[in-house]
């Protein structure tokens, strides 16, 4: 399993802001009797910020190499595109906000707020915390950059409503519900223009208080229009979800339109001992006009790629899944590189008009594709390469709904059949099938080492994602 190593210190140079900017400094080590928030006489605690009426261009500077107890709650603060309000560290090192049992930074009904170069820490998902590291509520034009968030029962970073949010170069780990979550009003796709890039979500194990739904995903986007997740990594999430039934996935989306997931690596994700899912990637209920490409799933307990439609979801239509790789996924659930499921209660809105093409599935745990009430219309699998490496498994598995899908010119190969010197297993559903051994070197764009190098170059120096053990 790949590990993320955090050096203790990172030197951050102080940036000067000109014009009408007001600077507010917080330094708990300050020994002066006067504390007016200036650099010479900084506030001694975060509590002092509650009395400030913030203006566009203001900057909150948090002393590096310190643990500041409390939280920052911004309500109705309106920066401008040219003069956002900024929260950042200053001096040598990174400042840590320790919020104990609550959320660390709350941005509520705000505009043009930037949070960067800070660590937010809660008391732990099982140790009394009930909040989120950085909680963005009905706000717009928000940027979160180079943040570490951990120890929160809900999310490391959470966005609820609003839009125009960028989350980049951040490490979210050891939280409960999700590493990063975007959500909005039910039965809408109203959260617009979301970008999540160059982030790592690790060991977000599950929310101990949620017993009626999934928890423990790496990155989850729902109720959104025009969202992108790229160059992100999700690993070892979901293993402590406190329930049976539907479970977490490394990186996924639901009830969203024009969602793109690309150039991501999702591996070693899990679910509870009796839970479902635990896969790498997922286009779930209500996904439309969306694209999943150039991703790598590996060694997940669930399927590498899930195509799901749950009861009550809106239409699932016009999606593309291409140029992805699955390696040995489906260890515990699904037993397949690709898993297709539609709740029978929603079979009138099945998986529709979607092309799954030019993907590479290498499976030693299960099947290439598995169907479980996978009701579909116009779901087409073409020009994929399916490789089975173990004995006693077959390319297509499941109930009669597998016959609803279309298969065109896929390449099928069984290494077990080759070893036993027997005929390659045929797939009667694919009349244009090819049965040939092919080189299945990972495409350059999703080669593990290349992807790790890209992530390493884009994350701050304190995150070393190239180390393995």
From TrEMBL:
Protein name: Right-handed parallel beta-helix repeat-containing protein
Organismal lineage: Bacteria, Pseudomonadati, Bacteroidota, Bacteroidia, Bacteroidales
